[in-house]
Fold each of these.
Amino acid sequence: MTFLEKIIDKKKQEVAERKLQTFGKHTRKNPIYSLHKSVQAADHISIIAEIKRASPSKGAIQMNVDILEQAKQYEQSGAAAISVLTDESFFHGSLNDLKAVSEVVSIPVLCKDFTIDEIQIDDAKNAGASIILLILAALPLERFQRLYNYATEQGLEVLCEVHNADELKDALTVSPKIIGINNRNLKTFEVDLQTTTELVQQIDENGLTIISESGMRTKEDAELARNAGANTILVGETLMRSENVEKDMQALQVPLSSSAKGAF
Ligand SMILES: O=C(O)c1ccccc1NCC(=O)[C@H](O)[C@H](O)COP(=O)(O)O
């Protein structure tokens, strides 16, 4: 069994338990913000900055982080969106984290979880998310398409995450606005930035938000993603371990050229 299969098995259990609960809905206090619009208007690579206490591949990263201070720093340093890992069992996150973060920032918040059911989309929206994540490696195609339609009907944006050509082909069936290319293989944890280079070449549409996810550490990495045709990067561990978030984010926000695939 791969690690991803283990995560999905646990998620199925959690969703089944969640469906037995009848607690009232959170009432979200923030509006829904558009990541896609902000990316299309930017003249530099956009950053989705992640709140990530721990991960299966790295273990503890910053267990004692003050997530509200971290989120405010991300926003002040120019983040286009904040990703909050809400999975409890493997990432030590929660929907309460997402709710708290979305109440102190005025940019979109991504609910970074392993979404397999509509109820998770309702919960993410009620907690304040503007974007949800659908991972093609974790969903049969028909389920992905249904969840994509459900989330967009709720007014949310959807980050459709792929790691190989087959998943990209499946993701394109819904004509998504936002595609995330994960450089990390979620089955082996191996990270290879060339994944972005290889897959962006297979996207014909212009004007998409194309995110290079995982393994981003330096300005050179951001340039590599930009040169491949991505207009956005998603950065977790590097920013969580950073001693100067503002400086590190400035370095990563490299200028975009109008020839970038996802640009303008
Ligand atoms: O990060 C992991 O170990 C991981 C393992 C299994 C499934 C998902 C995982 N991470 C989720 C992500 O996609 C990353 O948090 C995100 O792209 C940021 O990556 P990084 O900048 O390398 O922390």
Note: The pocket of LARABZUK is lined by residues 3, 50, 52, 55-58, 182, 184, 186, 189, 213-216, 234-238 (CB under 6 Å).
Amino acid sequence: MSSSFLRAEKIGMRFGGLQVLSDIDLEIGERSLTAIIGPNGAGKSTFLNVLTGVLRPTEGVVAFRGQAIGGLPLHRIARLGIARKFQIPSIFSSLTVVENLQVARWGSARTEWPEDELLEMIGLRDRRSVQGAELAHGEKQWLEIGMAIASSPTLLLLDEPTAGMTPQETADTAALIHRLNKKLAVIAVEHDISFVRALGADTLVLHQGRFFRQGPFAEIEADEAVRDVYLGRR
Ligand SMILES: Nc1ncnc2c1ncn2[C@@H]1O[C@H](COP(=O)(O)OP(=O)(O)OP(=O)(O)O)[C@@H](O)[C@H]1O
């Protein structure tokens, strides 16, 4: 396996008798932007868990800068420069925005972004002294992204980053990810097609646990076969 940035080769994942992923290949570069879409149950979250090393695939290998990461302890994966934001925010509601970011930095041995730069990137510079509990839903998600990247990773994985957001928050999140993407690679699993359109990312379509299509979102959106998949016609 070559030492490209992130490479997944012939990934298969089985839970008991259920084959959830089959024969998926993906290779992404530094500072790339990738969206993973597909109908419910297509295996998107499972694939994201395999890409972060949280799940060791039953077949195939995931390597980050040439090192196999499947099943490594989370702190080792984080130290390699991979960060993950989950769907449910886990910010500290009694701490301010800035204090939350400081907590996220504790123990980090990596070079860090200046605090102001981090606040600017997540769009919360003017909200730095506001307590977590007072933030709007979207702002909590952005703070969580800030906490995930506080130790300056080179790859960030997001599972449905716009879940529950208003259309404005969703648009702001796309802009936020574009800002982040100047510094690091981002992979996002997402349901909201308006968000994926705004991202304009290289897009991977999964269908029934298999690779279905990959390409620029504009091409994917115009693809009749992809529409059929979403409408359950395939
Ligand atoms: N730990 C597990 N054990 C058993 N089955 C699982 C496990 N995790 C996921 N699955 C099954 O794998 C399939 C794919 O689930 P996954 O959550 O990856 O799909 P998804 O594309 O992210 O779906 P959604 O869009 O609904 O979130 C589903 O049938 C799910 O029930």
Note: Residues 29-54+69-200 form a domain with the Rossmann fold fold (CATH 3.40.50.300).
